[in-house]
Amino acid sequence: MSMKHIGTLLLVITQTHACSYFAVESPEGEVLGRTMETAGTQSPPCKQDPPIAWNLVKVQKGLTIQPYCTGLPLPSWVTRYGYVGIGAPPEVRKVYDGINTEGLSVQTQTLNTAHYPTSQANGKINICFFDFAQWALSSFGTVGELKAALQNTSIVADKYPLEGGAVHWQVTDAAKNSIVVEVVDEKIAIHNNTVKVMTNDPPFKWQLWNLNNYMRFNTQWSYDSGISVQTELGQMPFEISHGTNTVGLPGDYTPPGRFVRLFFFKQFAQINTPPTSTADAITLATALINDVHIPKGVVAHNEPKGDLASDYTQWASLKTPSVPTFYYRTYDNMQWKKIVLSELDFTTSKETPVFTSSDGIVDASGSLN
Q1: What is the distance between the alpha carbons of residues 313 and 366, in angstroms, rounded to a whole number?
Q2: Is 48 exposed, middle or buried (0-12, 13-18, 19+ CB in 10 A)?
Q3: From the CB of residue 133, how many other CB atoms can be counted at a distance below 10 Å?
Q4: 5-16, pLDDT tens digit by residue?
Q5: What's 80's DSSP letter?
Q6: Cis peptide bond N-terminal to 203, omega within 30
Q7: Measured at the alpha carbon of residue 86, what is the angle toward residues 1 and 29, in degrees to the nearest 5?
Protein backbone atom coordinates (compact mmCIF):
# COMPACT_ATOMS: atom_id res chain seq x y z
CA MET A 1 0.00 0.00 0.00
CA SER A 2 1.40 3.41 -0.91
CA MET A 3 1.95 6.22 1.61
CA LYS A 4 -0.60 8.28 -0.31
CA HIS A 5 -3.23 5.58 0.22
CA ILE A 6 -2.34 5.24 3.91
CA GLY A 7 -2.74 8.99 4.32
CA THR A 8 -6.15 8.89 2.67
CA LEU A 9 -7.39 6.14 4.98
CA LEU A 10 -6.06 7.85 8.11
CA LEU A 11 -7.68 11.12 7.07
CA VAL A 12 -11.07 9.43 6.81
CA ILE A 13 -10.77 8.18 10.38
CA THR A 14 -9.27 11.43 11.65
CA GLN A 15 -12.15 13.47 10.29
CA THR A 16 -14.80 11.11 11.70
CA HIS A 17 -15.96 12.44 15.05
CA ALA A 18 -19.68 11.76 15.48
CA CYS A 19 -21.43 8.47 14.79
CA SER A 20 -24.49 6.90 16.39
CA TYR A 21 -25.76 3.30 16.65
CA PHE A 22 -28.97 1.82 18.05
CA ALA A 23 -31.16 -1.26 17.66
CA VAL A 24 -34.97 -1.37 17.45
CA GLU A 25 -36.78 -4.63 18.25
CA SER A 26 -39.79 -6.22 16.60
CA PRO A 27 -41.27 -9.75 16.64
CA GLU A 28 -39.65 -10.31 13.23
CA GLY A 29 -36.17 -9.35 14.41
CA GLU A 30 -34.05 -6.30 15.13
CA VAL A 31 -33.41 -3.31 12.89
CA LEU A 32 -30.00 -1.73 13.45
CA GLY A 33 -29.57 1.97 12.74
CA ARG A 34 -26.35 3.90 12.24
CA THR A 35 -25.24 7.37 11.14
CA MET A 36 -21.82 8.30 9.73
CA GLU A 37 -20.67 11.83 10.49
CA THR A 38 -17.46 13.18 9.08
CA ALA A 39 -16.15 16.46 7.76
CA GLY A 40 -14.97 17.46 4.35
CA THR A 41 -13.09 15.88 1.52
CA GLN A 42 -10.41 13.20 1.42
CA SER A 43 -7.61 15.60 0.45
CA PRO A 44 -6.34 18.33 2.81
CA PRO A 45 -7.04 21.11 3.42
CA CYS A 46 -10.34 19.64 4.58
CA LYS A 47 -13.24 21.45 2.90
CA GLN A 48 -16.98 20.94 3.23
CA ASP A 49 -17.61 19.72 -0.33
CA PRO A 50 -17.42 17.38 -2.08
CA PRO A 51 -17.98 14.64 0.52
CA ILE A 52 -15.71 11.63 0.86
CA ALA A 53 -16.05 9.27 -2.10
CA TRP A 54 -17.77 6.49 -0.15
CA ASN A 55 -18.44 3.20 -1.94
CA LEU A 56 -20.98 0.46 -1.41
CA VAL A 57 -18.91 -2.72 -1.23
CA LYS A 58 -19.50 -6.44 -1.76
CA VAL A 59 -16.60 -8.64 -0.61
CA GLN A 60 -16.46 -12.23 -1.76
CA LYS A 61 -15.81 -15.47 0.08
CA GLY A 62 -12.33 -16.95 -0.27
CA LEU A 63 -10.56 -13.59 -0.75
CA THR A 64 -7.09 -13.16 0.76
CA ILE A 65 -6.92 -9.88 2.70
CA GLN A 66 -3.61 -8.23 3.50
CA PRO A 67 -3.28 -6.38 6.83
CA TYR A 68 -3.59 -2.59 6.90
CA CYS A 69 -0.82 -2.00 9.46
CA THR A 70 2.22 -2.31 7.21
CA GLY A 71 4.65 -1.45 10.01
CA LEU A 72 4.09 -4.81 11.73
CA PRO A 73 4.51 -8.32 10.25
CA LEU A 74 0.85 -9.21 10.66
CA PRO A 75 -0.64 -12.21 8.85
CA SER A 76 -3.12 -12.07 6.00
CA TRP A 77 -6.36 -14.03 6.21
CA VAL A 78 -8.94 -15.56 3.87
CA THR A 79 -12.58 -14.50 4.03
CA ARG A 80 -14.90 -17.25 5.26
CA TYR A 81 -18.10 -15.25 4.72
CA GLY A 82 -19.11 -12.70 2.13
CA TYR A 83 -20.24 -9.30 3.36
CA VAL A 84 -21.68 -5.96 2.24
CA GLY A 85 -20.93 -2.53 3.66
CA ILE A 86 -19.71 0.99 3.03
CA GLY A 87 -16.04 1.89 2.76
CA ALA A 88 -13.83 4.61 1.33
CA PRO A 89 -11.28 4.25 -1.47
CA PRO A 90 -8.66 3.12 -2.12
CA GLU A 91 -9.09 0.15 0.27
CA VAL A 92 -12.87 -0.02 -0.04
CA ARG A 93 -13.08 -3.58 1.31
CA LYS A 94 -12.11 -2.06 4.69
CA VAL A 95 -15.66 -1.12 5.57
CA TYR A 96 -16.80 1.14 8.40
CA ASP A 97 -20.24 -0.46 8.56
CA GLY A 98 -21.30 -3.84 7.22
CA ILE A 99 -23.24 -7.10 7.53
CA ASN A 100 -22.27 -10.60 6.43
CA THR A 101 -24.24 -13.50 4.99
CA GLU A 102 -24.81 -14.96 8.49
CA GLY A 103 -26.35 -11.74 9.81
CA LEU A 104 -23.32 -10.58 11.81
CA SER A 105 -23.15 -6.78 11.77
CA VAL A 106 -20.17 -4.55 12.66
CA GLN A 107 -20.02 -0.77 13.06
CA THR A 108 -16.78 1.20 13.44
CA GLN A 109 -17.09 4.47 15.38
CA THR A 110 -14.62 7.03 16.71
CA LEU A 111 -13.30 6.58 20.26
CA ASN A 112 -10.44 9.01 20.75
CA THR A 113 -9.65 7.62 24.21
CA ALA A 114 -8.86 4.14 22.85
CA HIS A 115 -5.20 3.14 22.91
CA TYR A 116 -3.72 0.12 21.13
CA PRO A 117 -0.45 -1.71 21.72
CA THR A 118 2.19 -1.12 19.03
CA SER A 119 3.85 -4.52 19.26
CA GLN A 120 2.56 -8.00 18.60
CA ALA A 121 1.50 -10.28 21.44
CA ASN A 122 3.26 -13.63 21.40
CA GLY A 123 1.01 -16.65 21.01
CA LYS A 124 -2.05 -14.57 20.06
CA ILE A 125 -3.93 -13.57 16.93
CA ASN A 126 -2.74 -10.03 16.14
CA ILE A 127 -5.19 -7.84 14.22
CA CYS A 128 -4.61 -4.27 13.08
CA PHE A 129 -7.22 -1.95 14.63
CA PHE A 130 -8.27 -0.77 11.18
CA ASP A 131 -8.79 -4.37 10.02
CA PHE A 132 -11.09 -5.36 12.88
CA ALA A 133 -14.44 -4.75 11.14
CA GLN A 134 -13.60 -6.71 7.99
CA TRP A 135 -11.82 -9.42 9.99
CA ALA A 136 -14.92 -9.92 12.14
CA LEU A 137 -17.35 -9.74 9.20
CA SER A 138 -15.34 -12.15 7.07
CA SER A 139 -14.44 -14.65 9.81
CA PHE A 140 -17.38 -15.09 12.21
CA GLY A 141 -21.08 -15.88 12.04
CA THR A 142 -22.09 -15.06 15.62
CA VAL A 143 -21.12 -12.78 18.48
CA GLY A 144 -20.27 -15.86 20.54
CA GLU A 145 -17.71 -17.03 17.99
CA LEU A 146 -16.10 -13.59 17.92
CA LYS A 147 -16.00 -13.31 21.72
CA ALA A 148 -14.29 -16.69 21.95
CA ALA A 149 -11.68 -15.62 19.40
CA LEU A 150 -11.04 -12.32 21.19
CA GLN A 151 -9.89 -14.21 24.28
CA ASN A 152 -6.74 -15.00 22.29
CA THR A 153 -6.49 -11.82 20.21
CA SER A 154 -4.57 -8.56 20.43
CA ILE A 155 -5.81 -5.49 18.51
CA VAL A 156 -2.75 -3.45 17.57
CA ALA A 157 -1.55 -0.31 15.78
CA ASP A 158 1.79 -0.06 14.01
CA LYS A 159 2.55 3.54 14.99
CA TYR A 160 1.49 6.59 16.98
CA PRO A 161 0.18 9.23 16.89
CA LEU A 162 -3.03 8.07 15.20
CA GLU A 163 -4.04 11.70 14.67
CA GLY A 164 -7.37 11.18 16.41
CA GLY A 165 -8.01 7.96 14.52
CA ALA A 166 -8.77 5.59 17.39
CA VAL A 167 -12.07 3.67 17.18
CA HIS A 168 -14.29 1.14 18.90
CA TRP A 169 -16.80 -1.33 17.48
CA GLN A 170 -20.40 -2.45 17.88
CA VAL A 171 -21.09 -6.07 16.90
CA THR A 172 -24.56 -7.67 16.65
CA ASP A 173 -25.74 -11.04 15.31
CA ALA A 174 -28.98 -12.55 14.03
CA ALA A 175 -29.83 -13.87 17.52
CA LYS A 176 -29.84 -10.27 18.90
CA ASN A 177 -26.58 -10.73 20.80
CA SER A 178 -24.87 -7.36 21.04
CA ILE A 179 -21.41 -6.31 22.27
CA VAL A 180 -19.17 -3.26 22.26
CA VAL A 181 -15.46 -3.93 21.73
CA GLU A 182 -13.00 -1.31 22.97
CA VAL A 183 -9.25 -1.21 23.54
CA VAL A 184 -8.51 0.77 26.70
CA ASP A 185 -4.95 1.03 28.05
CA GLU A 186 -3.88 -1.48 25.36
CA LYS A 187 -6.28 -4.16 26.64
CA ILE A 188 -9.44 -5.42 24.93
CA ALA A 189 -12.66 -4.73 26.84
CA ILE A 190 -15.89 -6.46 25.79
CA HIS A 191 -19.20 -5.05 27.02
CA ASN A 192 -22.62 -6.67 26.62
CA ASN A 193 -24.65 -3.90 25.00
CA THR A 194 -28.07 -4.53 26.51
CA VAL A 195 -29.07 -0.85 26.09
CA LYS A 196 -28.55 -1.29 22.32
CA VAL A 197 -27.02 2.19 21.85
CA MET A 198 -23.47 3.34 21.12
CA THR A 199 -21.92 6.69 20.18
CA ASN A 200 -18.36 7.96 20.79
CA ASP A 201 -16.31 9.37 23.68
CA PRO A 202 -16.20 8.88 26.62
CA PRO A 203 -15.94 5.07 26.67
CA PHE A 204 -19.02 2.86 26.82
CA LYS A 205 -19.03 2.26 30.60
CA TRP A 206 -19.11 6.02 31.23
CA GLN A 207 -22.03 6.40 28.82
CA LEU A 208 -23.94 3.70 30.68
CA TRP A 209 -23.37 5.34 34.07
CA ASN A 210 -24.40 8.73 32.68
CA LEU A 211 -27.92 7.38 32.01
CA ASN A 212 -28.49 7.53 35.79
CA ASN A 213 -28.49 11.33 35.58
CA TYR A 214 -31.76 11.18 33.62
CA MET A 215 -33.68 8.67 35.72
CA ARG A 216 -36.56 11.15 36.29
CA PHE A 217 -37.73 10.84 32.67
CA ASN A 218 -40.59 8.44 31.99
CA THR A 219 -43.12 7.35 29.40
CA GLN A 220 -46.18 8.72 31.21
CA TRP A 221 -48.21 11.91 31.13
CA SER A 222 -47.46 14.23 34.04
CA TYR A 223 -50.27 14.40 36.60
CA ASP A 224 -50.85 16.61 39.63
CA SER A 225 -48.62 15.24 42.38
CA GLY A 226 -50.40 17.21 45.10
CA ILE A 227 -48.39 20.42 44.80
CA SER A 228 -50.81 22.32 42.52
CA VAL A 229 -52.69 25.29 43.91
CA GLN A 230 -55.76 27.20 42.77
CA THR A 231 -54.88 30.54 41.15
CA GLU A 232 -56.76 33.26 39.29
CA LEU A 233 -55.86 31.31 36.12
CA GLY A 234 -57.06 28.00 37.52
CA GLN A 235 -55.18 25.05 39.00
CA MET A 236 -51.43 25.59 38.57
CA PRO A 237 -49.18 24.04 37.49
CA PHE A 238 -50.74 21.64 35.00
CA GLU A 239 -49.68 19.84 31.84
CA ILE A 240 -50.05 22.65 29.29
CA SER A 241 -49.06 20.59 26.23
CA HIS A 242 -47.67 17.26 25.08
CA GLY A 243 -44.01 16.30 25.24
CA THR A 244 -43.26 17.50 28.75
CA ASN A 245 -42.01 14.03 29.72
CA THR A 246 -38.99 14.77 27.49
CA VAL A 247 -38.23 18.28 28.81
CA GLY A 248 -34.61 18.37 29.93
CA LEU A 249 -33.30 15.55 27.75
CA PRO A 250 -30.17 16.69 25.92
CA GLY A 251 -30.81 18.07 22.45
CA ASP A 252 -27.19 18.56 21.43
CA TYR A 253 -24.99 16.58 19.04
CA THR A 254 -22.30 15.60 21.55
CA PRO A 255 -21.72 11.84 21.95
CA PRO A 256 -23.19 11.79 25.49
CA GLY A 257 -26.17 13.87 24.32
CA ARG A 258 -26.87 11.56 21.39
CA PHE A 259 -26.43 8.44 23.56
CA VAL A 260 -28.94 9.64 26.17
CA ARG A 261 -31.46 10.90 23.62
CA LEU A 262 -31.37 7.73 21.52
CA PHE A 263 -31.73 5.49 24.57
CA PHE A 264 -34.74 7.31 26.02
CA PHE A 265 -36.52 7.99 22.72
CA LYS A 266 -36.02 4.37 21.65
CA GLN A 267 -37.28 3.05 24.98
CA PHE A 268 -40.26 5.42 25.10
CA ALA A 269 -41.34 4.45 21.59
CA GLN A 270 -40.89 0.70 22.09
CA ILE A 271 -42.81 0.74 25.39
CA ASN A 272 -45.71 2.96 24.30
CA THR A 273 -46.04 1.76 20.69
CA PRO A 274 -44.02 -1.46 20.18
CA PRO A 275 -43.19 -2.22 16.54
CA THR A 276 -45.15 -5.24 15.35
CA SER A 277 -43.13 -5.93 12.17
CA THR A 278 -39.86 -5.19 10.45
CA ALA A 279 -41.62 -2.42 8.52
CA ASP A 280 -42.71 -0.81 11.79
CA ALA A 281 -39.19 -1.10 13.18
CA ILE A 282 -37.71 0.49 10.04
CA THR A 283 -40.12 3.41 10.41
CA LEU A 284 -39.09 3.94 14.04
CA ALA A 285 -35.40 3.50 13.22
CA THR A 286 -35.69 6.09 10.45
CA ALA A 287 -37.26 8.55 12.90
CA LEU A 288 -34.45 7.98 15.41
CA ILE A 289 -31.82 8.48 12.71
CA ASN A 290 -33.53 11.71 11.72
CA ASP A 291 -33.29 12.89 15.34
CA VAL A 292 -29.47 12.61 15.39
CA HIS A 293 -28.95 13.61 11.74
CA ILE A 294 -26.47 16.53 11.65
CA PRO A 295 -26.99 19.17 8.94
CA LYS A 296 -24.00 20.85 7.33
CA GLY A 297 -22.70 23.82 9.24
CA VAL A 298 -24.46 23.18 12.56
CA VAL A 299 -21.49 21.65 14.39
CA ALA A 300 -18.57 24.06 14.86
CA HIS A 301 -15.29 23.07 13.20
CA ASN A 302 -11.97 23.09 15.02
CA GLU A 303 -10.16 25.76 13.04
CA PRO A 304 -7.08 25.91 15.32
CA LYS A 305 -6.44 22.26 14.43
CA GLY A 306 -6.82 22.95 10.73
CA ASP A 307 -10.42 21.85 10.21
CA LEU A 308 -12.07 23.99 7.55
CA ALA A 309 -15.36 22.10 7.64
CA SER A 310 -17.71 20.71 10.26
CA ASP A 311 -19.03 17.20 10.78
CA TYR A 312 -22.30 16.34 9.11
CA THR A 313 -24.20 13.13 8.40
CA GLN A 314 -22.75 12.00 5.07
CA TRP A 315 -24.73 8.75 5.12
CA ALA A 316 -26.85 6.52 7.32
CA SER A 317 -27.61 2.80 7.27
CA LEU A 318 -30.12 0.23 8.49
CA LYS A 319 -29.50 -3.51 8.79
CA THR A 320 -31.76 -6.48 9.50
CA PRO A 321 -29.60 -9.36 10.81
CA SER A 322 -32.44 -11.93 10.89
CA VAL A 323 -32.77 -11.64 7.11
CA PRO A 324 -29.36 -10.17 6.21
CA THR A 325 -30.19 -6.91 4.44
CA PHE A 326 -28.32 -3.62 4.18
CA TYR A 327 -30.12 -0.30 3.67
CA TYR A 328 -28.39 3.03 3.10
CA ARG A 329 -29.17 6.65 2.30
CA THR A 330 -27.01 9.75 1.80
CA TYR A 331 -27.08 13.37 2.88
CA ASP A 332 -28.36 14.52 -0.50
CA ASN A 333 -30.72 11.58 -1.14
CA MET A 334 -32.86 10.47 1.80
CA GLN A 335 -34.52 7.59 -0.09
CA TRP A 336 -33.49 4.24 1.43
CA LYS A 337 -31.79 1.80 -0.95
CA LYS A 338 -31.85 -1.90 -0.09
CA ILE A 339 -29.30 -4.71 -0.63
CA VAL A 340 -30.59 -8.25 0.11
CA LEU A 341 -27.51 -10.41 0.68
CA SER A 342 -29.23 -13.69 -0.30
CA GLU A 343 -29.67 -12.28 -3.81
CA LEU A 344 -25.94 -11.59 -4.32
CA ASP A 345 -23.20 -13.69 -5.89
CA PHE A 346 -20.35 -13.83 -3.38
CA THR A 347 -17.90 -15.52 -5.74
CA THR A 348 -16.82 -12.04 -6.84
CA SER A 349 -16.23 -8.66 -5.19
CA LYS A 350 -17.61 -5.36 -6.40
CA GLU A 351 -17.99 -1.72 -5.37
CA THR A 352 -20.13 1.16 -6.57
CA PRO A 353 -20.33 4.83 -5.50
CA VAL A 354 -22.70 5.66 -2.64
CA PHE A 355 -23.31 9.21 -3.85
CA THR A 356 -25.19 9.63 -7.12
CA SER A 357 -26.63 12.59 -8.99
CA SER A 358 -30.18 11.70 -7.93
CA ASP A 359 -31.91 13.51 -5.07
CA GLY A 360 -34.46 10.70 -4.68
CA ILE A 361 -37.47 13.01 -4.94
CA VAL A 362 -40.42 11.46 -6.78
CA ASP A 363 -42.67 13.68 -8.88
CA ALA A 364 -46.22 12.75 -7.84
CA SER A 365 -47.97 15.42 -9.92
CA GLY A 366 -49.43 12.80 -12.24
CA SER A 367 -51.36 11.21 -9.37
CA LEU A 368 -53.67 14.24 -9.35
CA ASN A 369 -54.39 14.27 -13.11
Answers
A1: 33
A2: middle
A3: 25
A4: 333 334 344 444
A5: S
A6: no
A7: 140
